[in-house]
């Protein structure tokens, strides 16, 4: 039995406190691009390893660096001047039983594939250079992986680390998340191809007023001139408002691309739909947490989950597990209004034996009667940790 | 007058909650190295710009990537096999009035200097390759900087962003911070040169039991054999215990290098004193927050302060200001036991006009009578924001 | 009037000396790839500059480095493991009248285009990483270029340098050149897609015996097994023999892929048709001279023509001009059997005023009566040097 | 017995022909730097391999790329702005019996050492970035090397290739070589520290007039102003003249830094003594041949010897052997005035069994009587080829 502590959330709801701040960096933000490429590479490596030897072998490709390019955006269509460079870094076994594996090729291919699908105005053949910088890593770890994966042993925690999660999202969290998702949905883009993917949403609530500040890159070839830009900006702004207003009873204001200076024709247009084309750099782990948000009024882990190996990396598994557990508790136990989960590992111990699983509840009534239910869910989730890797491979978590 | 909200911390102290987690990545940790090199480069650039034109010009060198090398540590002294590579990335004006400035040379020189002073067993001439990858950035920003710096205008916030801070440190926070500082102090190192700089301290409190888990790299040429290692490990462990025990009434256990397997001669020795030599990569912004700690039970910002320009970068200025403000309030107003500060900027507005400055107090008695004092300190700190850059140049903040 | 010296070739013909050695590195050889990419980039830049400001601006992109990849070729089709990396280096103006030009994008695009057309089994999207490393170079040179190109002045020699050429090819030179051209022709490849582009031909004549040693990469997916390989090898060998035998009365032997060891299934198959995929690196200027051959028994310049600017770079212009002049003299003056031309520049003087133009003739009869005709052709060619750039842009020279 | 052909040089001496061109790129020329670093790395690797396993293992580090930096030279002392980057590329076994060897560290260390000793005004810690890009290469070759080195078998030629050499140097060859050597001698530098190492000497003889054009970088911190520069330039020019005049009876003119424009203060000063600091790139194999010169009127090989493995690489061994053989024949057989040697290998055959060794003599009298002596020397040199590697390790050849 895991060491599960169940307690009370004994402070007012964040959503009832006077101020709240929530942020989400959308698909095309340089940090999100790095997260995505790291995670996609981890998935691709995991699949390659499973094909080659039936097991996911050691890898941690959780460091990436995107160096912004130079672009010359213009109404009607400008051009890239100097390409974006992306370093994909970390450890990945590149030889199994004497056979050299194409980990670098895979890194390039996977990155191109994700970029093509997700940043369609970026021409991967010439606007971006992928530098795969992968080293094989320690041989000891290979043996460990074989034990876990091939013989079915429970993986051991690779570190003393922790994960945190909370549920449910409150109104401003939901708004920030859903506004970005709506603006970056395939359906919306089909109708509004002039909207790029680099969409950053920052929500600040001041008592009952919610200000949603959006920085969204437009794609120059779909915008004729400043007037056209301003018209399209209003369309986007209105749509964001409609999405947001549906999710709260509070007053919402939308501020879109506030740094624009239309009189000087200085507005936020890009060639590719992402600010990575000119000036903005990115890294893994500098953006959204595993629940898709940045929430300074909530407990957060600094762990970067993207790119880490899904079998034994505590920072990846415990954060997603804590979030999952919180969501299950809230959805399955009616009386629970809100829950925070903290999971702390012990290095060298099975991942199913955390130092502590600290669960804090906000309930309608007494905690007492619910403890067993909560504990049951928690234990199930913990017992299930050795299978979490499958969910990562199926992209079941938000993760970034 | 700034929009200052003063409220109550209406939940039990973190130190009285059943579980608490605190972490600190020491000087030689790959993430900390990246933070340090980014920040040192920002300081060096700021000084260069001031010499060249009397003002700090635009720069943000807040992205760095350290790719671990390959090493062959051995008792008595091993060797590096393949060097560490460090990419220093970002924007930095490299031309003023037609004169090309040596920003790349400065990056290399500054990095070498810091590494020599702080990781003395690393031979910078051959164990590390510095890749300066700096681009000049936008010309618009240059004009802005001239206005702020040469004409004395208050800088405008470059982003909608926020900073958070709290004070004072509780016992486990103090322990985690001070144990690393003690082990990495020049005095201690003089007596114990076998201890490297890559020291990660993780504290987990479970009610009244504090477990301090330390991962500390030893330097191979000062360690004769396994027995010698084990003896020296005990010395370190005992010293860490003595430091920690003095800072709390709770029960403390020290766990040092728990992954060691001395029977197989597998212990944590390194050639250089940092795990960056073999296997561990690093980035800016993935380690300690501006107060020197990672504290998932406290509000945290994900903003990386290191390397950002100290004049108008909100993510840097507001985080340090919030921490400073919190520390002043606690130290100057006796009745305040604890304080959390949140500062939120408005993009395009003067940095002295935050959207909100949210201050939450835990007081001995009523808040009412203290509000004016608190507001006064807050306003002073806010008024003083345009001068914060000087403190960055003088390394007055912990920052990482 | 240029300083034209006309003399006699007073030694026996190379083709009548007992030994002769001639070599050609074919299209897919790593050195030839580098030459081609450098030259294509120079052409693309020249066109870009002409579009942007009506003149070819300063550039010299005559340094390139190809770092071979890692491949796993297999009968029926293997795979690339780690990509080829190509650094394209040199100087190229990247800003005209304040407008930043896309020189890096152009480098990538041009390289991809050439590779796709010439090494069709290489998938440029993932088997190769292009690193454009271009620096703007000196501003003084920009002004010079404007004078030459916009005002029609005769360019000044950028260096004290020289060019050499000879005509006609003797039998073994013709064989070495034509065998590679035949094997790499589109028509031949259509019928024989299993033959790659990396074809190196070395001819050694020992009195009247000519040994043609060919190293030719096969493409694995078109070859079933060793037997199939050996059959196809015979086809190629026979074809090379038929091409060669038609070009000489001497005895010819063909040796194809002599390092093969078919019993151990060790034969020269590749995934991509070039040895660059695994093991072989390349550089500009290490392969064929501007006449397409390496001829140690003939005078040679070490100058790399590929990638140099076509307006004023002596090393490029004089070598092609000397070859051209030699070919014209031989073809237009019946009595001339053979000619060697040496052109030496004076740095800072117009390119139409060489220090010396040294012409050595082998004639049927007396030189005397031919001198005027030779001088006329030479003077015409020299007068025409300022227009040579057009021929480079139209790819009128062999060049590599 | 080797296939040795002995014939007659049946054309007038080059030194008696009307025109002759000879060039030498001095120590600090970017191409020479590349040659030197490649060769020094080969020597260092050879020594490392011998220490580790008693034999020189496979390596070919004969590709290098130097990308020029940016500098701001000034009378009295300027500064570097952006560093020189040097890629050292090729193949080198990096693991022997499971032990990883520090080939990258060695590359950095060796490069720094050579640069410090030979370009003293270059601060290797910040003016230059060394990128070691070495790949392990083929395993088959390792076995071959073990056979040659450990079991004493004669190495097999790795390629069909050739080497050429001639002796003795004529007057202009001697002048070009000795002028550079004199200007770059330690003794001369001690007295004249203002002279840099990047000294290119081009000699053009027009009948009995020899023009020596020298481009020589001056070191800015040792030069006060233009007048001082002009004075020092005269000193150098006079010294070069005195060296040259002693070596010929012909008329000699010295032209030093002819592109200088002193009225506009545009003269050839540098911070570091090499043009690599700003603008000039370099590669291996683009400069001097193994005899230290570039001689278009003599037979030349395009083979780059620098960096190649000294055990079995024909391009390296045969070129130096041909030069050596030519020098011995001339010095040991009084009647021989001049000799050209061509050596052609057979791929896969022992290096002591060339396809042909073609020796052409210019003698005072009849060849007949000398043939035996010549053949004896040639055979001795050929028999001795398997030991040539020792001379490379002892730097017995000029090589560049």
UniProtKB/TrEMBL annotation, chains A, B, C, D:
First and last residue of the signal peptide: none
InterPro entries, sorted: AdoMet_synthase_2_family (IPR027790), AdoMet_synthase_3 (IPR042544)
| Source taxon at top rank | Bacteria
Q: Which NCBIfam families match?
A: PRK04439.1-5
- PANTHER family hit by this protein: S-ADENOSYLMETHIONINE SYNTHASE
The protein in question is named S-adenosylmethionine synthetase
Query: Which source organism?
Result: Persephonella hydrogeniphila
């Amino acid at each position: 039995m895991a060491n599960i502590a169940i307690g009370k959330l004994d402070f007012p709801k964040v959503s009832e406190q006077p101020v709240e701040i929530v942020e989400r960096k959308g698909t095309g933000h340089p940090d999100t691009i790095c997260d995505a490429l790291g995670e996609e590479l981890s998935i691709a490596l995991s699949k390659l390893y499973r094909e080659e030897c039936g097991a996911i072998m050691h890898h941690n490709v959780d460091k990436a660096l995107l160096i912004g390019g130079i672009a010359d955006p213009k109404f009607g269509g400008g051009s890239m001047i100097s390409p974006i460079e992306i370093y994909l870094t970390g450890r990945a076994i590149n030889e199994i039983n004497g056979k050299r594996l194409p980990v670098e090729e895979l890194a390039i291919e996977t990155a191109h594939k994700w970029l093509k699908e997700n940043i369609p105005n970026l021409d991967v053949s010439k606007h971006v250079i992928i530098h795969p910088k992968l080293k094989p890593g320690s041989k000891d770890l290979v043996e460990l992986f074989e034990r876990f994966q091939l013989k079915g042993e429970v993986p051991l925690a690779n570190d003393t680390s922790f994960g945190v999660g909370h549920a449910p999202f409150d109104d401003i969290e939901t708004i920030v998340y859903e506004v970005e998702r709506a603006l970056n949905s395939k359906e919306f883009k089909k109708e509004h191809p002039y909207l790029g993917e680099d969409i950053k949403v920052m929500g600040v609530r001041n008592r009952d007023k919610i200000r949603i500040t959006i920085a969204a890159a437009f794609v120059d070839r779909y915008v004729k001139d400043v007037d056209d830009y301003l018209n399209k900006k209003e369309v986007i702004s209105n749509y964001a408002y409609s999405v947001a207003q549906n999710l709260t009873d509070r007053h919402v204001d939308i501020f879109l691309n506030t740094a624009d200076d239309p009189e000087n024709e200085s507005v936020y247009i890009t060639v590719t739909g992402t600010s990575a084309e000119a000036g903005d750099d990115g890294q893994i782990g500098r953006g959204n947490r595993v629940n898709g948000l940045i929430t300074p009024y909530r407990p957060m882990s600094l762990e970067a989950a993207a790119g880490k190996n899904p079998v034994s990396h505590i920072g990846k598994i415990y954060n997603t597990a804590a979030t999952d557990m919180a969501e299950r508790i809230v959805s399955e136990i009616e009386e629970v209004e809100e829950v925070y989960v903290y999971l702390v590992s012990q290095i060298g111990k099975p991942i199913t034996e955390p130092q502590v699983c600290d669960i804090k509840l906000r309930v309608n009534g007494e905690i007492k009667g619910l403890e067993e239910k909560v504990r049951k869910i928690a234990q199930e989730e913990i017992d299930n940790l050795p299978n979490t890797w499958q969910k990562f491979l199926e992209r079941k978590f938000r993760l970034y």
